């Protein structure tokens, strides 16, 4: 596998009120052109690793090596982080403006990605006028609009009702699988074992804090995956062995 991201011996300790909280204890693995899900017990450091990959947080030691030095990275946060005083269109266009694009060009691109997530007729709405699922769609459109090679997602479906979450999962998978976006690599942090097996090519399982890689499990089941199939169940059992260990 040709790596797109190499995570090499990443160590991170937070300092809180004079006390050291070791969070990541030497995380090493490669991510290629694939969909990787990171699973692990609550508070073990999954989000911290994602933030380090995105450059939002600094590792104490170790490194993250990107094969494509100028690769753009999109980030979808757990809860939508839209600016309330801007319309949907302006929210999606903003990161493009920040990158130096004219408003006209930025809005054209924003419209393209809003239509990809099914929100073309909501461009003049404000975030408060949207449902949770629609806000998360805008968040996804905003991350895609910068045309990233790498998409990082932090529990993107966990705040949505089950039906909305399920349709968004399939939509994200479709967009990625059929190559209608620039994204070649997806890294998703999740608590949800079922969601990880449904979506990912490989599962990276972390131990409890301080996190180490406990196991890497490939999911070689053709998509769309049937959660009731014996192969699916077998992987689920394997994951729980590591998670409850
Ligand atoms: N900026 C920070 N300063 C101090 N402690 C932090 C900071 N960010 C995270 N932590 C702590 O580091 C630990 C790991 O947090 P992190 O959010 O990475 O875990 P997680 O595995 O994503 O958790 P969850 O699954 O519950 O979302 C937690 O105990 C958290 O309280």
Give a topology summary.
Blueprint: E1 5-16, E2 19-31, E3 35-39, H1 46-54, E4 61-66, E5 73-76, H2 88-98, H3 103-116, H4 132-145, E6 150-154, H5 162-177, E7 185-190, H6 193-199, E8 202-206, E9 213-218, H7 230-243
The chain binds adenosine-5'-triphosphate.
Question: How far is it from the N-terminal to the C-terminal residue, by CA?
Answer: 29 Å
What CATH calls the topology of the largest domain is Rossmann fold
Which small-molecule ligands are present, each listed once? adenosine-5'-triphosphate
What is the CATH C level class of the largest domain, in words?
Alpha Beta
Taking the sheet with the most strands, its summary is: 6 strands, mixed
The CATH superfamily label of the largest domain reads P-loop containing nucleotide triphosphate hydrolases
Helix content: 25-40%
- Uncertain segments of ≥5 residues (pLDDT<50)? none
Secondary-structure class: alpha/beta
InterPro entries: AAA+_ATPase, ABC_transporter-like_ATP-bd, ABC_transporter-like_CS, ABC_transporter_ATP-bind, P-loop_NTPase
Pfam families: ABC_tran
Keywords: ATP-binding, Nucleotide-binding, Transport
GO molecular function, one term: ATP binding
What's the short version?
Helices cover 35% and strands 25% of the residues. It has 7 helices and 9 strands, in the order βββαββαααβαβαββα. InterPro entries: AAA+_ATPase, ABC_transporter-like_ATP-bd, ABC_transporter-like_CS, ABC_transporter_ATP-bind, P-loop_NTPase.
């Amino acid at each position: 596998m040709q790596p797109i991201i190499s995570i090499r011996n990443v160590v991170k300790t937070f300092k809180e009120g004079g006390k050291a909280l070791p969070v990541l204890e030497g995380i090493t693995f490669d991510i290629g052109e694939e969909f990787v899900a990171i699973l692990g017990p609550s508070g073990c450091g999954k989000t911290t690793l994602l933030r380090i990959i995105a450059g939002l947080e600094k590792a104490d030691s170790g490194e993250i090596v990107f094969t494509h030095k100028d690769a753009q990275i999109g980030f979808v946060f757990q809860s939508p982080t839209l600016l309330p005083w801007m319309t949907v269109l302006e929210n999606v266009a903003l990161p493009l403006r920040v990158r130096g694009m004219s408003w006209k060009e930025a809005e054209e691109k924003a419209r393209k990605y809003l239509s990809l997530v099914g929100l073309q007729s909501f461009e003049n709405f404000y975030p408060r006028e949207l449902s949770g699922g629609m806000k998360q769609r805008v968040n996804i459109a905003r991350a895609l609009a910068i045309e990233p090679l790498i998409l990082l997602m932090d529990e993107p479906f966990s705040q949505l009702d089950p039906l909305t979450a399920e349709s968004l999962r399939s939509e994200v998978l479709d967009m990625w699988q059929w190559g209608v976006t620039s994204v070649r690599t997806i890294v998703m942090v999740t608590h949800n074992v079922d969601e990880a097996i449904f979506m990912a090519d490989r599962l990276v399982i972390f131990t409890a804090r301080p996190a180490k890689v406990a196991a890497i499990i490939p999911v070689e089941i053709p998509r769309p995956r049937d959660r009731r199939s014996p192969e699916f169940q077998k992987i689920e059992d394997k994951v729980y062995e590591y998670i409850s260990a």
